[in-house]
Amino acid sequence: MSTGGFDRKLTSYGDAGFSKFLRRAFLASAGLDAVDLSKPVIGIANTASDYTTCHRDMPALLDAVKRGVLEAGGIPFQFTTMSIPEILVNPTSMLFRNLMAMEVEEQITAQPMDAVVLLGGCDKTVPAELMAAASADIPAISLVVGPMMTGNWRGERLGACTDCRRLWTDYRGGVLDEDEIAEVNTELCPTAGTCMVMGTASTMGCVLEALGMTLPRAGTAPAVSSERLRLGVATGRRAVELAVADLRPSEILTREAFENAMVALAAISGSTNAIIHLTAIARRLGIELTIDDFHAASQRVPVLVDAKPAGSRYLPDMHIAGGMPALLKELEPLLHRSPVTVGGPTMGELLDGWAPPAGHQDMIRPLGEPLKPAGALVALHGSLFPDGAIIKAAAASPHLMSHRGKAVVFDSLDDLAERMDDPAVGIEPDDVLVLRNIGPAAIGMPEAGAIPIPRYLAEQGVRDMVRISDGRMSGTAYGTVILHGSPEAAVGGPLALVRDGDIIELDVKAQRLELLVGEEELERRRAEYVPPVRPPQRGWRRLYAERVQQARLGADLDFL
Ligand code: FES
Ligand code: MG
Fold first, then answer.
1. If you measure from the C-alpha of residue 403 to the centroid of ligand 1, how many angstroms do you get, rounded to a whole number?
2. Any ligand 1 atom below 6 A from CB of 271
3. For residue 526, what are the contacts with CB-CB under 8 A and spacing of at least 6?
4. Which ligand 1 atom sits nearest the alpha carbon of residue 161?
5. pLDDT of res. 395
6. Where is the Dihydroxy-acid/6-phosphogluconate dehydratase N-terminal domain (predicted)?
7. What pLDDT is recorded for position 408?
8. Is there a single domain that holds both residue 142 and residue 159?
9. Among the atoms of ligand 1, which is closest to the Cα of residue 200?
């Protein structure tokens, strides 16, 4: 076994012999002897943090991975990385994905390791680590902490966070009282693990399997299951083999692997955030994915997985039904067989070996009897967003798919918070809610695109309206919500020029979203336009605002 080990990437003291000598002295201080130093070094990126509550059980998973590494003859070296807690970080986790990607890439690149295990799970951690590994291009294998189990309230199963949103809407509409919503609150996240609907975390876990960057079944095994620990051990063992074989992400993450991922994304009706993340990861490898590529995949592939928010169940159910291997088997005619997976076999060889469990087709439907028809995700074009926008049609209301209404414009999140529930604003159910200055360059693209229904309309029973923004929406959310509009208002997109009362027309079937205001009038408004927000003046936020690209390019920094 010759993998370089701790002699890789010597620290620069100008004398290689001395560098090695010094390094060995300090490794000896950590208890490593000559036998240890002869083994492949497996770095383990540890994203545990008290703030990232869904990573609560990561220490146990880390131990399992370490055991696997040791069993296979490697030396496990965990290193802590930045963690990004989806719910506890202000203003939005997305502002930090690229920072974490840079940080992890530099740790992988600067420190001696022959392969790396990427432990993650929460929404931004998995894409950040994949972006890092794609750029560093050393042997890498991903492992998520796995989804939570579901909770229970008065006999009803609950889970984070599609049910969080639905029940909060009920509370705002007066259907639930203070005590009831407080009871609900303790049942939404009942165990360790990531949000167990098909939100971004679950989506990325599933997508990892389709990409071939994690072991089979590792996308869906519950966080609290013993299988999760066994996957940890197996991942550790495999990481040593990857180090020896020198199998790199660039050999796994090919255009065809991304095409398989787009097919899987459509079949799970995955989070719209995955579009941005996959685009960013692919671009790190020089592969260009467009919203029209995602649209095309979605037109070919119906929704097969019955998970919220598009369906009715949860990730642990999907796992019992065979998880991603069962789904990929159903999708077999649509998949490329040639991509190599991190476990060793090609996708084709894996497919040949899989037999989904009996009865799985209730949860994971066959291609011929889908949960929802193809077209779950639609790319929109037109005058409001010249570079496109998207809508998750599978989570939208059928009666709003073709709609024309008057714009009610909010300039910022503060403006929204201030005026949204004020009946004096006089919003009507047929109006189109427009929220701008929440794009990547403005404030890092928060998940505020699913604009709440004004309280006074919610109380009248209005549950959905057409909502438009340059931001994102949580993968756990639903509604007729148009997202990722490019170019965003903050970089001068037409969205910046919309005024109250302008007519906006949506036609999902025709893939059109039009701002029905004449070119001359828009030019007049453009001449008068004053940007409402001052860009950040220092630190990461300044670098981010200056160099972030639009959503359609993955919202990565332009120099990465
Ligand atoms: Fe981490 Fe939902 S908060 S996955
Ligand atoms: Mg999320």
1. 33
2. no
3. 492, 497
4. 2
5. 84
6. 39-349
7. 98
8. no
9. 4
Residue 258's nearest CA partner among 233, 236, 286, 220 is: 286
pLDDT at 169: 85
CA 224 to chain CA centroid, Å, is 21
Q: What is the pLDDT of residue 531?
A: 86
Residue of 94, 188, 194 best suited for mutating to test ligand 1, as the one with most atoms within 8 Å of CB = 194
* Boundary (domain end) residue, out of 353, 388, 407: 353
Ligand 1 near 195 CB (within 6 A)? yes
Asked, for residue 27, whether it belongs to a domain, the answer is: no
Q: Find the 354 Cα to ligand 2 centroid distance in Å.
A: 31
- Of 304, 337, 353, the position where a domain reaches its end is 353
Q: Are residues 175 and 195 in the same domain?
A: no
Instruction: Give 504 Cα–ligand 1 centroid separation in angstroms.
Output: 34
Given a cut of 70, the residues of the chain with pLDDT beneath it are: 1-2
Q: Are residues 294 and 381 in the same domain?
A: no
Is the C-beta atom of 447 inside 6 A of ligand 1? no
Which residues, other chains included, contact 285 with Cβ-Cβ below 8 Å and sequence gap of 6+?
134, 249, 250, 253
- 256 and 386 co-located in one domain: no
CA of 308 to the centre of ligand 1 (A): 15
Q: What is the DSSP letter of 451?
A: P
Instruction: Confirm whether 504 is domain-assigned.
Output: yes
Looking at the structure, tell me whether residues 300 and 438 fall in a common domain.
no
Six-digit token string for 86: 């989806």
Q: pTM value?
A: 0.96
∠ CA 298-469-127, rounded to 5°: 55
Domain ranges, residue 428: 377-533
Protein residue closest via CA to atom 1 of ligand 1: 122
Tokens (6 digits) for 402? 């073709």
pLDDT, position 1: 54
The protein residue with its alpha carbon nearest to ligand 1, atom 2, reads 195
- Is 22 within a domain? no
For residue 214, CA distances in Å to 130, 349, 362, 377 come to 11, 15, 25, 25
Distance of CA 538 to the CA centre of its chain: 27
Per-residue pLDDT of 341-380, as tens digits, reads 999 999 999 999 999 888 899 999 999 999 999 998 999 9
Q: What is the number of the ligand closest to the CA of 475? A: 2
